[in-house]
Amino acid sequence: MKTQSIFKRMSRRNFMGALGAGAVAAGCATDVLPPVTPPDGGPPTGPTDPDGGVEPIAPVEPTEPTQPIEPTEPGLPVGFKALFLNRTSFGATAAEQARFDELGYEAYLEEQLNPGSIQENDSEINALLAPLWTLTATPTELLQTNFAQAWNNVITHLAKARLIRAVKSRRQLNERMVDFWLDHFNIQAAKTPFVRYQAIQYERDVIRPFAFGKFRDLLHAVAKSPAMTVYLDNSSSTWNALNENYARELLELHTVGLNQGYALQDIVDVARAFTGWRPVSNATNEPPDGMFQLGFVSSLHDPNAKLVMGLPIPSGGGIEDGEAVLDHLAGHPNTANHIARRLLTYFVTDNPSTSMVSAVAEVFYESDGDIQDTMRAVLSVENLQQATTQLKRPLHYVTGILRQTATTMDSNAAIDRVLDDMGHYPYAWITPDGYPLDNRYWVGGMLERWNFAYKLVKGEMVGFNLPLSATLAPGVTTDPGQVVDYWNERYLMGRMSSSERTALIDYSNNVRNGSASGDAELFGMMLTMPSYQTV
Fold first, then answer.
1. Residue 404 gets which letter from DSSP?
2. Which of 395, 410, 417 is nearest to 178 (CA)?
3. Is the predicted pLDDT of residue 339 greater than 60, yes or no?
4. Greater confidence, 1 or 206?
5. What is the pLDDT of residue 30?
6. Which of 156-170, 218-232, 277-291 is least confident?
């Protein structure tokens, strides 16, 4: 009992105190590498085609990705490998670390930028996804055949699938890009029944196929998704009952950024351009056949002339009014700056410099919004040398542990609840700005992280099974210093601080009777250290 009470005090207070109280939060601001117009004037006069019906809108097709560039490996600064792999994955496994050593920085980056070139872990992923039947169900099965079961399971299945893919996929940078875009174009699945059921299609057919394509295509795909149309209320916007919600978020969040070159009348004219866009089933009252397809109802569209941030849109138009707005915004210099800043914030630093943003924005603008080219600029050696320590968001923290330890999962269990406990449940963020990128938002959730790590290593986390091999050191060594050093190399790629190393060894010697290799409690403490919770 004495040892147990000491462990309890040590794990929650003394151990973290030995590393420096608030080290996780404070460390997030430190460097991680050494330096090396006017409107048209008239109100709507009503539709030009009062008998206009529903015109289905063809879904956007992703463009072919650009060809990989030829690598020319530069000299890399000390610590770059760990930094790069932590920023481009949810937690680098031993195999991925070896792959980086084999290929080098540029060739490894090119491989990850072209996920189709990576042999996916299909058998394991598909086996875990198989029980999640709503992900492949038809609209009829969701809405008529199995309505009650679907209602209860859609959001749970989506959350489990996000966790499974993040843990098991070998296309790690692609998974991180999907995570980024799902926040950038956030929808809350529980807002309405329509959004709940369409969220499956939204991630599968709208976000994932365009994660590394052209931003213009991604923007069109999002705008033409019934999920986004309903979530941001554009489905109820008509020429004589305008709803500006989607127009505001299209400008403020999706493209040019808050107050970046547009006025109130621009918002109004953007909203007018998108009148008549609504799910086919919403317009024809014949669900569920048109549930996952957007339609255009010409009788509900404002046909008058519009002016959006300098773009004149002549009268007499239809669906092409909204498409012209999307093209104009996708190619706008302010959009290039906004996307560049957000990508740098997500992958590199909370406060990217003006020069960093300008350089990445220039690539985005000159490449016509090519996301692959833009990511080459974001993840350049020069940018990553200016990276600051960032606290892993809960999805990143949890998946990193599960990936690196080869923990097995049971998708029939409630494995998604761990993300809910940490406040990072997929599709649950209510407002359209998505889960925060700012480290400060996540600092308050340390207790939930500690509980997850300790329960996992003790075998108390239902649905997860951490293998004993994850806690062992090679050979027969039991020396705490050697074991801790091995864990440092395998799980942190040498990022453990000297104070953390000392604290683990002292705890092993003074509380655990010198136990180290295979010691679940000591291993759990390693997973809660600031160096493991940050990238």
1. H
2. 395
3. yes
4. 206
5. 52
6. 277-291
Has residue 435 got a pLDDT over 80?
A: yes
Q: Tell me the C-alpha to C-alpha distance, in Å, between residue 337 and each of 96, 260, 333, 413, 524.
A: 32, 10, 6, 43, 41
**What is the average pLDDT across 324-328?**
98
pTM here is 0.89
Residue whose tokens read 């250290």: 529
Spatial distance between the Cα atoms of 249 and 280, rounded to a whole number of angstroms: 23
Return left, alpha or beta for 120; rule: phi > 0 is left, psi -120 to 50 is alpha, else beta. beta
- CA-nearest of 301, 295, 329, 300 to 316 is 301
Beta strands in 357-486 (DSSP E): 408-409, 464-465
Sign, CA torsion 255/261/267/270:
negative
d(CA 271, CA 41): 16
Euclidean distance between CA atoms 150 and 13, whole angstroms: 44
Q: Where are the domains of the chain?
A: 2-34+391-533, 75-384
| Residues 432, 231 contacting (CB under 8 angstroms) | yes
What tokens appear for 298 in the block?
């010409």
| Average pLDDT estimate for 469-485 | 87
- Alpha-helical segments (H) within 185-242: 193-201, 215-223, 226-231
